Amino acid sequence: MAKKKTFVLRINPETMNAVEKWAADDFRSINGQIEWIIHNALKNAKRLKKEQ
CB 41: neighbour CB atoms within 10 A? Predict the structure, then answer.
């Protein structure tokens, strides 16, 4: 498995609640959901060096 870098994320409660619900709806952890959101945003913006 690839190494993961840790960091602290400050997020307002309303946004966090929305992410928590979305993660539950998709049967993902909150961390997994945030990674998925970021990955898709990078992919859509063509910011990834290669398809991962």
Answer: 10
pLDDT tens profile 4-13: 999 999 999 9
Report the C-alpha gap between 22 and 30 in whole angstroms.
Answer: 9
Task: Using CA atoms of 1, 3, 13, 25 in order, give the dihedral in degrees to the nearest 10.
Answer: -10
Question: What's the angle, vertex CA 11, arms to CA 16 and CA 13, rounded to 5?
Answer: 45
**End-to-end Cα distance, the chain:** 13
Rounded Cα gap, residues 37 and 8, in angstroms: 17
Could you give the CA distance from residue 1 to residue 45 in angstroms, rounded to a whole number?
25
